[in-house]
């Protein structure tokens, strides 16, 4: 299966663009076509995704990948978890930036004292 970030991105992309081909999904997510196929089948097996056939503008048979209520719920839970992770990452970065700014300010003061 995909790592959590790619898994979330797949669910988000499918929710926003259910008519994308597997090839387009693979390109957008930066994974192989085989991995997308495997993951879509796994999501269908878990009941998170259903596949509908439709005719596209070229009158060719295409597929729409639709999140089921279970899939929507799964994506919502993942959204909350990713938000928590991103907030923690932001806090760590903010602390690191503040430390670097203090260090730069101290060095600047030291350089001025040597002039």
From TrEMBL:
Keyword Coiled coil among record annotations: yes
Coiled coil segments of this chain: 80-113
One Pfam family recorded for the sequence: HTH_24
Superkingdom classification of source: Bacteria
Domain HTH cro/C1-type: 11-32
Keywords, alphabetical: Coiled coil
Protein name (database record): Regulatory protein MarR
Organism: Sideroxydans lithotrophicus (strain ES-1)
């Amino acid at each position: 299966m995909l790592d959590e970030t790619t898994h979330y991105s797949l669910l988000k992309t499918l929710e926003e663009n259910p008519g994308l081909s597997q090839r387009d999904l693979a390109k957008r997510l930066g994974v192989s076509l085989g991995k997308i196929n495997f993951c879509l089948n796994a999501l269908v097996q878990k009941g998170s995704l259903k596949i509908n056939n439709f005719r596209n503008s070229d009158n060719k048979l295409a597929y729409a990948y639709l999140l089921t209520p279970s899939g929507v719920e799964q994506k919502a839970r993942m959204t909350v978890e990713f938000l928590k992770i991103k907030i923690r990452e932001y806090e760590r970065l903010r602390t690191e930036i503040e430390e670097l700014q203090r260090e730069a300010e101290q060095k600047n003061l030291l350089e001025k004292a040597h002039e």
